[in-house]
Write a structure and sequence with these properties.
Order of helices and strands: EEEEEEEEEE
Bound molecules: FE2/S2 (inorganic) cluster
CATH architecture: 3-layer Sandwich
Number of domains: 1
Oligomer: single chain
CATH topology: Rieske Iron-sulfur Protein
CATH class: Mainly Beta
Radius of gyration: 14 Å
Strand content: 35-45%
Number of strands: 10
Distance between the termini: 25 Å
């Protein structure tokens, strides 16, 4: 499956957009951010990976356009293994560190990372 690069998605935030404070990201689990008030907004989530911070498009590689947290349920992590991101639709699991699928209907695929950086305590796109 070929996925659209993150920046080409409708409503993708521009490089340099301030997303939140670094302290807004919980110690465990991810936080979702939505850009564009439409039926098909740009949805992404940010979570901690040890001392690092990762961001991915909130879209499962099993069904493109389907968020991993249907009805906003869950914190994006596998309840039994917090090193894995969990899709609440059909249960696929992805490595938190890379977004690569490790089990489920997404095998051979993965989540799409969104580049972020931290500066002065703020998380910024790019
Ligand atoms: S939509 Fe995520 S596993 Fe099916």
């Amino acid at each position: 499956m070929s996925l659209l690069p993150w920046a080409e998605h409708e409503h993708a935030p521009e490089i340099g957009t301030i997303v939140c404070l670094e302290t807004d990201i919980p110690k465990v689990g991810g936080k979702e951010f939505i850009f564009g008030e439409t039926k098909r907004p740009f949805r992404m989530f940010i979570l901690r990976d040890g001392n690092d911070i990762k961001a991915y498009i909130n879209g499962c590689s099993h069904f493109v356009g389907t968020p991993l947290n249907p009805n906003n349920v869950g914190n994006f992590l596998d309840a039994n293994d917090p090193t894995l991101i969990y899709c609440g639709v059909h249960g696929s699991r992805f490595l938190l560190t890379t977004g690569a699928c490790v089990s489920g209907d997404c095998e051979g695929e993965g989540l799409q990372p969104v580049p972020i950086s931290v500066a002065d305590g703020q998380i910024i796109i790019g």
